[in-house]
Fold:
Amino acid sequence: MQRARLFLLAAASFSVLLGAHPARAVTVYHSLIGAEVAVSFPDWIDYGSAFDISFSVDVSPMVPGNTLAFKTYLDTTDTIDLSGSTWEYTFASDEPAWNFTLFGTPGDATMPMTHDASGYSLRLYDPINGDYTWLWSSFNDRVVWTLRNVILNQDTRFSLTLELFLTAPETFVVDVPQNVLPEPSSRALAALGLAGLALAARSAAARRSPAARRG
Structure:
């Protein structure tokens, strides 16, 4: 009976620590002269595992008739691996003819990239207009840049800079992840530790029992 309870305890420990975690997104927001800038990434990121991170600019909260034009730069600390990454660019608008999605890889003409000891620096060109991205609030325009299959080696800082047309740039800094869970091997060791504690407690209880003392 005691062995069965110990087995169930160990199984429960593994299921809690190694079990599936429902995917949820963490989104951090920033206001840019009335537009909404957002960075989204998973709330569950293991070191060495691939994840996606998205950067969006939405002008729908702005007063209709306004236009937002900006250049985009992305800098990260040298704690990620982009060698197997791809980018995705989506333009969403109330005007159906303007909606499209394009794909590529970091370092191509649309997303030129430099990499040195301090980190990565990427320039996010507008695939259609080239230099500046233009958004119209009357059409609720929104653009989303997504980096897919990013490998996190350590905590990483993403700095998103929007250089507005004829004005000073604004930089939006996000630390990713905000809560990194232990690696799977660490969780397995923790589960084994719990099972070991349970076994030790059972042995101690057996030694303290009257039957054990009589023996």
